[in-house]
Structure formats: C-alpha cells, structure tokens
Amino acid sequence: MLQIMGHHICRIGNIHNNAGVTRHSDVLRNVLHDFYGLTQGIHPRLPLTHIRQRSCGHNQKLCILDVAVISCVNQCSLWQIHRGIIQVKSLCPGCILAAEDSTNFPKVTAPAEQGGLGFDYKWDMGWMHDTLSYFQTPPEERPQRYHQLTFSMHYFHQERYLLPLSHDEVVHGKATILQKMHGDYDGKFPQARSLYLYMMVHPGKKLNFMGNEIGHFREWDEKREQDWLLRDFPIHDAFYHYMAELNHIYLNHPALSQWDYRPEGFAWLDCRREEACVYVIQRQGGGERLVALLNLSDQARQYELPATEGVELLLHTDWQRFGGRTPEEECPQPAGGILTVCLPPYSGQLYRMK
User: Fold this and answer.
1) Which of 7, 132, 248, 335 lies at a C-alpha separation of 20 to 30 Å from 76?
2) DSSP 335
3) How far is C-alpha 183 from the geometric centre of its chain's CA atoms?
4) What is the pLDDT of residues 301-350, one digit of tens each?
5) Any residues with CB less than 8 A from the CB of 194 and at least 6 apart, and which?
6) Is the CB of residue 164 less than 8 Å from the CB of residue 124?
7) How confident is the model at residue 26 (pLDDT cuts 50, 70, 90)?
C-alpha cells in the first residue's frame, strides 16, 4: 500500500490539545492514556469526531476524510471511540481505519460487538522501530541485535497488524528510509532491497510512503514535489524497478498475503543464525509455499535448505538489473534433498517450492 497523505488510508489523524495545537503522533496512544489516566468528569455530549468529506475528484472510488479526534482532558471514553468509528464507516463504508498506536491495549482491531475498538488494522510500531534500528546498525553489531527482526512474531497474532514505513519516518530530521541504511551511498541500496524483501515476506499489510520506491534522499516536504529526477540516475532507476517487481510478486503470489492473520501462513525455518545474520522464512497460502532467505551481514554466506522437489527463484535482491552484482542464471535445483544457496552480503532470495 502506497501512502499518499490519506488517499488510500483513513487515519484517525489529529489530536487537538486545549491550546488548539495539532499533534499528529501516536494518536490512539494519547486517547487511551486520557481514558485510563483521567476518567473523571466525562462529558457524554462532547463530540468525538469532526468529519469533513472533501471532493473525490475524478475517481469516485476514493474519498478523503478529515477526521479529528478531540482528546481533551477528562473527556474521552471507549464509547466515544466506538461512536466515532461508526460515524466514519457510515460516511465512507469502503474506507480503512488504521490505529496508530504503540500501546499494548488489547483488541484494537477486534469488532466492537466483541469488546474491541473496531479498527481495521493497527500500525505495528514495534516492528517499524526494531526493523529500522537493526538496519541502521553496523554489521559487526548485528549478531547482538539479531532478534530485533524476530521479536514482532511473538505478539503478531494479537491484532490485525499493518507494517508502516510512513511519512512520519521520513520527516523532522529522521532521514529517509534509504538514508537510514548503514554505510555509504552505494552500500545503502543492497540493504534497502533486503529490507523491503523482509517487509514483504513478513505477515501484515504494507504501508510505504511515496518516494521510498525511488530511493529518495531528501526528507519529505509538503511544499515540494518528490525528486522524481532521481530516476535519471541508474542506481535509483534500478531500485525503482526492483520495488515494482517486488510489488508484482506480492500481488501475484497469495502466499504473501492470504493467510497473514492465520498461524499456518507463517513459519520461521531458521531464526537461530545469530552470528551469520541469516534468516529463513516460510509463507503459505493459496495453494503455494514460498521461502525467503536473508543474509544481513557484510559477508557472503552459504546455506543448505531442505528441499525434496524442484524450486523456482522468484527474486534475488542482488541481481545486476537491480543494481547488484549477481548475473541472472538458471536457478539451482536440490540435490540429495538439499538446495545449496549462495547468499551475497546484504542480500535476499525468494523461492517458490514446487
């Protein structure tokens, strides 16, 4: 999902404090904090939401909703949150409501009739912070941080999570996604390609802010368009084509999305290679089984993957046409029940198991 300022996702977006100053970070957390910390004197008639529907333009299937959560001191309740969600859903039945929330408040995405808040998805803020922190880390420190990339699956079953690399991560001096990668200019691209493969094979719907797909280096500025001229540079254009192909694979292979929220849709085949920084992930769904191998160290690795039948290599992050060094050759096949995979530094491969 490409986030373009609310066109594709309707967020409960702005909290106004008593001074009228708009805050835009971790919205639901602030609402829930007010509810739990300050529950006296709730005003039942205080409007929770102010909703304004703007022109949909030529595409009537998309609408833009401005939704403001009024979170004043002592004046918020779960009943009001439920009422606001019902209002939004009635105004735009096809919209998606995603909760930006870093708390462990339960049942954020459970239906209201089951005691939940009724959101469609919850931003997995923990996944986002851990993942970006890991990729900012020098390779010699990654063995100690290895499980930053595995921890999210310990709690993933609790909600319908969405993996956000949103506009919040490319503003206010935080640097763009590509800039966050460890190393110099050329060294950032292979890591970013591996990051996005990891994101696509991890369960949960995807949110990727505009400009990330071309390797944007300048932080987002609402007063300027993105630096589309970057595609004139071969390494950025190759990265763009990599992202396009990765998205097509995601769309065309149901194993990557169909069973996001079912336990059988995901499995760690190997998450105990701390020193090598190698991860092996299996996704299932739609009658197919995919396996991704990631080497996030700065050294080439060799991995033996059990495989009794043939395999198809769907994607290699280090292929030359994506800016890497590996030529596209015939896919190796298992021998004696083992598929031997050569993993270049900072690379990943995605296989379909036949």
Assistant:
1) 7
2) B
3) 22
4) 999 999 988 999 999 999 999 999 999 988 989 999 999 999 999 999 99
5) 294, 295, 296, 317, 346, 347, 348
6) yes
7) low
Beta-carbon neighbour count of residue 83 at 10 Å?
Answer: 15
Q: What is d(CA 225, CA 155) in angstroms, rounded to the nearest whole number?
A: 38
177-to-67, 209, 218, 219, 222 alpha-carbon distances in Å? 27, 10, 10, 9, 17
- The predicted-structure confidence for 282-300, as pLDDT tens digits, reads as follows 999 999 999 999 999 999 9
- Residue 154 and residue 333: Cα distance in Å, rounded? 33
| Residues comprising the chain, all counted | 354
pLDDT above 90 (res 101): no
For residue 147, give the DSSP letter. G
Q: Look up residue 220 and give its DSSP letter.
A: P
CA dihedral for 137, 215, 321, 256, sign (positive or negative): positive
Beta bridge partners of 37: none
pLDDT, tens only, 141-168: 999 999 999 999 999 999 999 999 988 8
| CA angle, 108 then 114 then 120, to 5° | 40
Q: Give the residue among 273, 266, 254, 256 at the shortest CA–CA distance from 196.
A: 256
Q: Assess contact for 314 and 290: CB atoms under 8 A.
A: yes
- 3-state SS, residue 149: helix
φ, ψ dihedrals at 273, nearest 5°: -110, 60
Cα–Cα dist 54/75, whole Å: 28
> Torsion over CA of 247, 225, 235 and 196, rounded to 10 degrees?
-30
Secondary structure percentages of the chain, helix, strand, coil, to 5: 35, 25, 40
Decide the pairing of beta strands 49-53 and 65-69.
antiparallel
Strand order in the sheet with 14-16: 22-23, 14-16, 65-69, 49-53
Torsion of CA 330, 344, 246, 155, to 10 degrees: 130
Query: CA nearest 354: which of 256, 288, 293, 304?
Result: 288
Q: Given this model, what pLDDT does residue 28 score?
A: 62
Spatial distance between the Cα atoms of 319 and 327, rounded to a whole number of angstroms: 6
pTM for this one? Answer: 0.82
Contacts of 154 (CB under 8 A, 6+ apart): none
